[in-house]
Write a structure and sequence with these properties.
Layout lengths: L5 H32 L5 H31 L2 H32 L1 H9 L14
Helix pairs in contact: 1-2, 1-3, 2-3, 3-4
């Protein structure tokens, strides 16, 4: 039987937050791509967002696969450290995605105005818990 500690609950909570944030970015990228594809002059930006979304999905798949493999071989005491390492890797991926989205919005006013018109549910506020 596994022991549940305060630290393991913290790690689980952090994992849930960063996973939710990554899912939100994925959804936002999908909507942004659809919006940008409507205008032929914005197809280069749509292509850039497609590549960013592909990077997000592939990196997430790779990190999760590595975490599953480590989980099988990790000792009980190291599992918490492994889980935190996975959370920090996901958080780093999230920051990369946010940086690229930030660059894209500074370069394209249509994308920026469209994203500003969306309601941002928990865009950054939940990330305070990870720091």
């Amino acid at each position: 039987m596994e022991n549940i500690t305060y630290h393991s609950l913290q790690a689980e909570h952090a994992w849930m937050i960063v996973s939710d944030q990554l899912q939100q970015r994925n959804n936002m990228l999908a909507k942004s791509i659809s919006h940008m594809e409507r205008n032929p002059s914005d197809l280069p930006m749509a292509s850039r967002l497609i590549m960013l979304r592909y990077h997000l999905k592939m990196s997430l798949r790779q990190l999760t696969q590595e975490a599953r493999q480590q989980k099988k071989t990790a000792q009980q005491g190291n599992r918490l450290a492994e889980q935190w390492m996975h959370v920090h890797q996901l958080f780093f991926l999230l920051r990369q995605i946010d940086n690229e989205l930030g660059r894209a919005t500074t370069e394209n006013t249509l994308l920026r105005s469209w994203l500003e018109s969306l309601e941002g549910r928990v865009y950054r506020s939940a990330l305070v818990h990870l720091n």
